[in-house]
C-alpha cells in the first residue's frame, strides 16, 4: 500500500522520527517519493510568473536590496582561481561598496575546497562564512570515498558550509536509496572533532533532472537525508535556477516543515544577475514561506555578478541617480 | 522588519474622464432626448467619475434606426473590408490598453493587475480573432455565403465591461451585423471610450451605437420591433424576462446567465496548483464571474490538507486599492451588490455553515468584502445553490467520482466546472459526465477567443467565442 504523504497535516512538529519508516528500504522510499502530490507544470509556471509581477518600490525596494546583499554566497568557481582573486572577493564580501560603509556584508564566500584556507584567513573575524563546493563538484562523478575525502578536506580547512552535488545519474536511474545514503554519508563527513558540523547544502542540478516531479522528489529525498539547505544548481550547466523550480523547492520546504517541524533553507544558484530578478525570488520566499525564511540563515543566492547590480541600484536609491559599472568594484 | 510592499499605484493621469457623456448614436455623441442623466461612481472610493445620459425609448428607437440604415452598407461590404476595420479597432485597443485598463479599474473596482493582464489583452484578442473570420465565413461550416441577421441589440453586465463588449461586438461586426449596445449602469465608461475608438478607426456611422442607461433602456431595446437579434449577458432573472419578451417573435436570442460552478479536487490532484486554481476560480475579479468556481468539491481524504493550504494561501491575498499593482482583490462593484453578497453570506452562517476569512484590513470608503470560505456546506444550503457573485467559496466534500458528478450536476445552472486530477482517464470520464458549457482541467477561469463559451439550463443558451460564436449572428 502506498504511503500517503501528510504534506499538509495539522500536527506538524516532531514527525521526522516517524518518517524513518519511509527511508527503511528501497521500496518504501520509492513509494513515498512517488506518492508525493504531482506538479502541474503550467500551473506552477503561471504562479511563478504572477509572483514575478509584484511591484516592489521605494522603502520595500531598499529593504529588499539590503536583504538580497546579505543573502549572497559570493562565488568564484573557476579553474583559473588564484589566492589573490579569492582574497579580493573576500574583501568585497566584507565591504561590498567601498564608498558606502552602510552596505550589509554578504552571507558567505563560495570557493573550491583548495581555496577554503585562503578565504578563511582573508575573512578573519568578519562573520562571513566560507562555503565550499566539495564532492567532486560540479559533475559529482567520483567514487564515494573520493567525495567524502573532498568534504573532510574542506571541513578541516575551515569551511563553514559544504555545497555537495548529488549523483544525478543515480537519481535518474531510480536508485533513490543510493542518493539518500550518499547525502547521509556526506552529512556525517561534515562533522568536526569538536562536535559541531559544517552546514550541508545539497545541489540537485535541476536543469539535468528535467521534470518538476523529479524536483519535488529530490527535494524531499535530500531533506529526509538531513540536508540543511537545498540548492538548485551548480551554475555550470545551460539551465540553472529558474523561478518555477525555486518556487517548487520552497513549497517542498514548506511542506517538509509542516510535516516534520524541521526548517530547511533554499538556495537558487546560477543565472540570477539583476536586482529585479533577485527581488522576484524574495517575493516568492515572502509569499510561500514568509518571514522566518527571509534571512541569510534560510535563504541564499548563489551568484557572482548579482552583487554589483544590487549595489548600483542601492546607490541609485540613496543618490537618486544611476551611477554605472565604474562606480562598483570588479574582481 | 518585515517585507511590506510599499504602495505601487498605477497613475490615473493616463485617462481623461470628461465630466459628462452623451449617447453614441449614428457616430455622434448626443444627450438623451429627455435630458436625463445618471452618475457613475468608483466603487473603491465612492467618487463620482462622470455623468452619463440615460437613454429613453425614443433614444433606443433612434439608435436602432441608425443601425438599420448602416446595416445596408455594412453588410454589403466584402468580409475583407470589414476585417480591416476590426483589425484597426484591435490595434487601437492595444495602443490604448493602459488608459483603458486604468479606466476599467476606476469604474469597476477590479485590480489593475487583472484589467491590465487579463481583460485588455483578451479584449484585443477577441477583435483580432473575429477580424480573422470576417472574410472566411464561407468556411465556418454554415454553408456558402451565410447572411447576417441585421440589427443586434446587446446588453452587457458590469463584471467585465469592456471584455463583454468585445465578446458581443466583435462577432456581430465580423458577420456583417450592426449593433446597439447597452453597457451596465454602474460601468458605462469603457463602452463610451470604445465609441471613441470606433470613430478613431473610421468605422462607418451607425454600425456601432452605445446607449447608456438602466434596465428600462435595456427592456426597450429588447422589445424594439426592428431588432433582429438579442444578446444578453447578466443575471438569470433578467434573462428569463428577456426570453419572455422575445417569445413568439422572430428575434434570435443568446443568453449567457448565472452559474454555480463546481471545482472538483481529487486526492491525486497537483495540490499546490489546485490551491492556485481554487483561488483564481473564486477570487478572480472579486468573484464577479458568472463561471466562478464557487462550489469547491473536495475528496474527503485530502479535505484537511487542502483546506489548510487554501487558508494559508488566502492569508497572502492583498485586498485594497484597485489601482495598486500589488492588489489581488479590489472593490465590490456597487452598494447593492455588496448588500446581496453580505445577505447570502449571513444566510450561510445562519444555516450552519462555518465561515472563515483571513484577517485583512478593508478600506473605510468604498464597497469591500473580505475573501470568505464556508466549510461544512451541504447541498441544501442556500450558499451551495444560489449564485453569490462575490468572493465567497462554499466547500463540500465527496468520496467517490460518481458522488462528485452527482453533486456537481445537482444545480439549476450549468456554465462551467473544473476537475483537478493527475489521472487522465478520470479527467476525461468526468468531463463527459458533467453538465456544463465549459470544463477546465487542472486550471480554471481560462479564456480564449477561439474557444466557445456558454451554458446549460438556467445558465442560458447559445455560445459566444470561437467558430460557434459566429452562428449566433448568422442566418443559419
Structure, described:
The complex is a heterodimer of chains A (331) and B (476). Chain A has helices at 26-34, 41-51, 58-70, 83-94, 116-123, 144-156, 168-172, 176-189, 206-209, 212-224, 243-260, 275-288, 306-319; strands spanning 72-75, 108-111, 129-133, 161-165, 199-203, 229-231, 265-267, 301-303. Chain A has an eight-stranded parallel β-sheet. By secondary structure, chain A is an alpha/beta fold. Chain A is globular and about 60 Å long. Chain A is built from 13 helices and eight strands. Chain A starts with 25 loop residues before the first helix and ends in a 12-residue tail after the last helix. In chain A, strand 1, helix 4 and strand 2 form a beta-alpha-beta unit. Residues 1-14 of chain A have low confidence and may be disordered. Chain B has 476 residues and is α/β, with parallel strands linked by helices. Chain B has 15 helices and 18 strands. Chain B has helices at 57-76, 79-95, 97-108, 112-133, 161-174, 189-200, 215-223, 236-246, 271-283, 303-314, 335-350, 382-385, 401-409, 424-433, 468-471, and strands at 20-21, 23-25, 28-30, 37-41, 48-53, 151-155, 178-182, 208-210, 229-233, 252-256, 262-265, 295-299, 354-356, 372-375, 392-398, 416-420, 438-441, 460-461. Chain B has a seven-stranded mixed β-sheet, with helices on both faces. In chain B, strands 8-7-6-9-10-18 form a six-stranded mixed β-sheet, sandwiched between helices. In chain B, helix 2 (79-95) runs antiparallel to helix 4, helix 3 (97-108) packs across helix 4 (112-133) and helix 9 (271-283) packs across helix 10 (303-314). The radius of gyration of chain B is 22 Å and the shape is globular. The interface between A and B is medium-sized, with 35 and 30 residues.
Amino acid at each position: 500500500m502506498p504511503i500517503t504523504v501528510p504534506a499538509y497535516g495539522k500536527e506538524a512538529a516532531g514527525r521526522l522520527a516517524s518518517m524513518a519508516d519511509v527511508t527503511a528500504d528501497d521500496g518504501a522510499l520509492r513509494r513515498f517519493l512517488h506518492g508525493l502530490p504531482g506538479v502541474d507544470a503550467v500551473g506552477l509556471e503561471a504562479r511563478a510568473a504572477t509572483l514575478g509581477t509584484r511591484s516592489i518600490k521605494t522603502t520595500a525596494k531598499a529593504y529588499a536590496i539590503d536583504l538580497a546583499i546579505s543573502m549572497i554566497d559570493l562565488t568564484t568557481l573557476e579553474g583559473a582561481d588564484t589566492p589573490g582573486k579569492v582574497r579580493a572577493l573576500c574583501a568585497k564580501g566584507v565591504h561590498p561598496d567601498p564608498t558606502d560603509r552602510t552596505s550589509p556584508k554578504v552571507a558567505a564566500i563560495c570557493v573550491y575546497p583548495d581555496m577554503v584556507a585562503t578565504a578563511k584567513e582573508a575573512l578573519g573575524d568578519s562573520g562571513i562564512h566560507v562555503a565550499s563546493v566539495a564532492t567532486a563538484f560540479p559533475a559529482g562523478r567520483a567514487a564515494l570515498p573520493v567525495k567524502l575525502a573532498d568534504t573532510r578536506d574542506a571541513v578541516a580547512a575551515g569551511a563553514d558550509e559544504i555545497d555537495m552535488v548529488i549523483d544525478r545519474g543515480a537519481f535518474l536511474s531510480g536508485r533513490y536509496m543510493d542518493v539518500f545514503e550518499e547525502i547521509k554519508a556526506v552529512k556525517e563527513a561534515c562533522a568536526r572533532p569538536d562536535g559541531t558540523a559544517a552546514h550541508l547544502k545539497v545541489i540537485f542540478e535541476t536543469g539535468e533532472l528535467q521534470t518538476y516531479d523529479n524536483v519535488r522528489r529530490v527535494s524531499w529525498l535530500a531533506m529526509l537525508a538531513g540536508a540543511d539547505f537545498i540548492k538548485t544548481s551548480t551554475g555550470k550547466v545551460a539551465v540553472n535556477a529558474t523561478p518555477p523550480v525555486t518556487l517548487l523547492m520552497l513549497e517542498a520546504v514548506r511542506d517538509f516543515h509542516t510535516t516534520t517541524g524541521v526548517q530547511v533553507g533554499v538556495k537558487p544558484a546560477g543565472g540570477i544577475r539583476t536586482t529585479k530578478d533577485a527581488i522576484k525570488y524574495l517575493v516568492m520566499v515572502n509569499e510561500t514561506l514568509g518571514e522566518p525564511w527571509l534571512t541569510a540563515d534560510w535563504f541564499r543566492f548563489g551568484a557572482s555578478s548579482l552583487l554589483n547590480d544590487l549595489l548600483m541600484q542601492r546607490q541609485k536609491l540613496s543618490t537618486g541617480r544611476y551611477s554605472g559599472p565604474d562606480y562598483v568594484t570588479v574582481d | 522588519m518585515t517585507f511590506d510592499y510599499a504602495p505601487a499605484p498605477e497613475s490615473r493621469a493616463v485617462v481623461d474622464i470628461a465630466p459628462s457623456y452623451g449617447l453614441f448614436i449614428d457616430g455622434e455623441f448626443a444627450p438623451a432626448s429627455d435630458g436625463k442623466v445618471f452618475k457613475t461612481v468608483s466603487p473603491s472610493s465612492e467618487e463620482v467619475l462622470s455623468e452619463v445620459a440615460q437613454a429613453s425609448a425614443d433614444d433606443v428607437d433612434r439608435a436602432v434606426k441608425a443601425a438599420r440604415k448602416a446595416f445596408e452598407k455594412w453588410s454589403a461590404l466584402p468580409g475583407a473590408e470589414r476585417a480591416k476595420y476590426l483589425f484597426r479597432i484591435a490595434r487601437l485597443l492595444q495602443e490604448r490598453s493602459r488608459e483603458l485598463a486604468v479606466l476599467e479599474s476606476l469604474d469597476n473596482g477590479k485590480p489593475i493587475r487583472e484589467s491590465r493582464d487579463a481583460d485588455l489583452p483578451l479584449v484585443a484578442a477577441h477583435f483580432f480573432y473575429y477580424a480573422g473570420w470576417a472574410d472566411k465565413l464561407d468556411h465556418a461550416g454554415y454553408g456558402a455565403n451565410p447572411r447576417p441577421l441585421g440589427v443586434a441589440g446587446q446588453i452587457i453586465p458590469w463584471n467585465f465591461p469592456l471584455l463583454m463588449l468585445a465578446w458581443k461586438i466583435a462577432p456581430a461586426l465580423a458577420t456583417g451585423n450592426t449593433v446597439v449596445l447597452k453597457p451596465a449602469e454602474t460601468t458605462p465608461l469603457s463602452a463610451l471610450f470604445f465609441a471613441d475608438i470606433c470613430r478613431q478607426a473610421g468605422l462607418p456611422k451607425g454600425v456601432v451605437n452605445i446607449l447608456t442607461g438602466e434596465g428600462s433602456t435595456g427592456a426597450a431595446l429588447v422589445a424594439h420591433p426592428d431588432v433582429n437579434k438579442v444578446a444578453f449577458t447578466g443575471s438569470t432573472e433578467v434573462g428569463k424576462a428577456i426570453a419572455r419578451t422575445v417569445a413568439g417573435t422572430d428575434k434570435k436570442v443568446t443568453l449567457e446567465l448565472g452559474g454555480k460552478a463546481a471545482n472538483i479536487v481529487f486526492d491525486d490532484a497537483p495540490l499546490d496548483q489546485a490551491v492556485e486554481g481554487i483561488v483564481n476560480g473564486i477570487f478572480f475579479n472579486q468573484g464577479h464571474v458568472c463561471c466562478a468556481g464557487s462550489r469547491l468539491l473536495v475528496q474527503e481524504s485530502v479535505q484537511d490538507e487542502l483546506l489548510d493550504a487554501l487558508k494559508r494561501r488566502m492569508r497572502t491575498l492583498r485586498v485594497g486599492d484597485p489601482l495598486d499593482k500589488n492588489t489581488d482583490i479590489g472593490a465590490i462593484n456597487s452598494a447593492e451588490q455588496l448588500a446581496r453578497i453580505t445577505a447570502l453570506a449571513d444566510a450561510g452562517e445562519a444555516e450552519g455553515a462555518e465561515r472563515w476569512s483571513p484577517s485583512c484590513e478593508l478600506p473605510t470608503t468604498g464597497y469591500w468584502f473580505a475573501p470568505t470560505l464556508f466549510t461544512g456546506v451541504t447541498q441544501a444550503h442556500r450558499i451551495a445553490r444560489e449564485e453569490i457573485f462575490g468572493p465567497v467559496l462554499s466547500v463540500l466534500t465527496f468520496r467517490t467520482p460518481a458522488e462528485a458528478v452527482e453533486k456537481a450536476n445537482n444545480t439549476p445552472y450549468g456554465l462551467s466546472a473544473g476537475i483537478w486530477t493527475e489521472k487522465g482517464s478520470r479527467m476525461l470520464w468526468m468531463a463527459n459526465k458533467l453538465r456544463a458549457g465549459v470544463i477546465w482541467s487542472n486550471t480554471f477561469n481560462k479564456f480564449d477567443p477561439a474557444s466557445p463559451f456558454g451554458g446549460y439550463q438556467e445558465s442560458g443558451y447559445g455560445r459566444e467565442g470561437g467558430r460557434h460564436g459566429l452562428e449566433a449572428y448568422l442566418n443559419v
